[in-house]
Request: fold
Amino acid sequence: MNNITNTFKFTSIALVIAASLSGCSQVQSNSTTTSQTEEKALTSQDAQVFLDDVAKEMTALGVSGARAAWIYSNFITEDTASLAAEADQKSTEAGVRFAMQAAKFDNVDVNPTQRRQLNILKQSLVLPAPQDSKKSAELAQIGAELGSIYGKGSYTTKTGEKLSLGDMTSIMSTSRDYDELLEMWQGWREISPSMKPLYARQAELANEGAKGLGYKDLGAMWRSNYDMPADDFANELDRLWGQVKPLYDDLHCYVRSELGKEYGEDKVPQDQPIPAHLLGNMWAQSWGNIYDVVAPDNADPGYDVTKQLAVHDYDEIQMVKGAEKFFTSLGFDALPETFWTRSLFTKPEDRDVICHASAWDLDAKDDLRIKMCIQKTGEEFSVIHHELGHNFYQRAYKDQPVYFQNSANDGFHEAIGDTIALSVTPKYLKEIGLIDTIPDESKDIGLLMKMALDKVAFIPFGLMVDQWRWKVYSGEITPENYNTAWWELREKYQGVAAPVEREQSAFDPGAKYHVPGGVPYSRYFLAHIQQFEFHRALCEIAGNTDPIHRCSIYNNKDAGKALNTMLEMGSSQPWQQAYKVLTGNEQMDATAILDYFAPLQTWLKDKNQGKQCGF
Ligand SMILES: [Zn+2]
Reply:
């Protein structure tokens, strides 16, 4: 699953749109305001006055912004949309001023905590505006326009049916008709050619803003968010990808051959990248929806959590209570009473809401909530565990200064939610009485395959989106080459190709929400790497002796304590320190993914024997 994480509310316009298009999101109440600093020589004391002032205002205004967003998401009307947009606008404007003012302390001798807080203010803008009110208004206008083109995007089929992205997403996931899939794939991409000039101008303006803040370009600014030099971060991602690639190649080879059987090798040539419309997802970014096409024989685990939930009479609240118990079993305090009275658990019948799962922290104290339209399925039971992972993280760091009430780096929040979901194993389901027996290990291949289609398949996509943007921002990719460079990267990293030749006017990156939405993407790559390492570390602490894909940390207080130690640090330290607390290492290590999927990789290698692999 692909998720959105919001850090400061400066990016919350994007969040509101994103929440309706993506998996889950976590929201917190930080907000912004204005402050004044003198133009004359600044001191560390001035920095402290500035930072204290900003922190106070953030806390004071945070709640109202979060409430506006909450009400909008729970009662969608013109009025609530307008109030939410107003609140967003306010915090975006304040964010611009903060970043500018923080940059004035660049050459002032301040203490390390002050420097960290100033950097957080500087880097909290995703698309920094130039210091020119006309240009900053233009940048805001472009952002709104891109968001609106995407948000209103639809396609009218050859038979005259008007489809939303939601409709098309569901066809992409279930249809096995080559031509129908192709029509959906091409149809959705008709929304984006008009974005191209806007996107080019946005890149130009935001680059100017980033330079004004002292960065080489916007890509360098984004890469500076990770407590290491920008270039080192790029190299680090390449290194991690190098670790995962052999596993990805095995999965790619097997999936391609199964698709060749399904659609014919004329449609899926076995020595070429896979046509992008056949992988069950509009962007070919995760492939879990085609599990039925590639499922191993005899891999049925012999139970169905959805059915078991029904057998045991679980309603939506009991599902959430069950997930809460996972956390209390680790030693975390139970959720506050207000969580139960203020959250949205089921789809209301009388009004429109944004159903996509999200986790909220409205007051940076105890007002935690989730917003979901829970379906009584096994998959949703995992999603609830994931969402509560956000909530428990938010609560763990609530005593940090407002600047540090955040994910250690922007991958951590999603990684934590997913880490918890990795513990929703057959063993755990048996312990809580949902299933009677744990299937034997021969059945694990099916579960691992499903997981790999979602998680391993995603990793190169998670990497290439920002590879493309970094090159756009550095000028290496120019507007004339936007689309060809996009497909070069998709072929290089994913081994996935456009199913038809793309027209000169095409702007396929624009058909992926995070590009027009201006949401950085490396965080999803990181989250996919980190969650397996967190899981492996927690299982080790728990004294697990099973293969790690069978491990659940349920009921283990030692694992809970170690997890909490990392969570409560928030972003107060460089993320490497938080990482070390749990994993013992300051550097990420993708071998945990290889460990997790080891039985599957062995199985894939066997199945791939004699096949032509590679792309
Ligand atoms: Zn999430």
User: Anything to note?
Assistant: The mean pLDDT is 90.
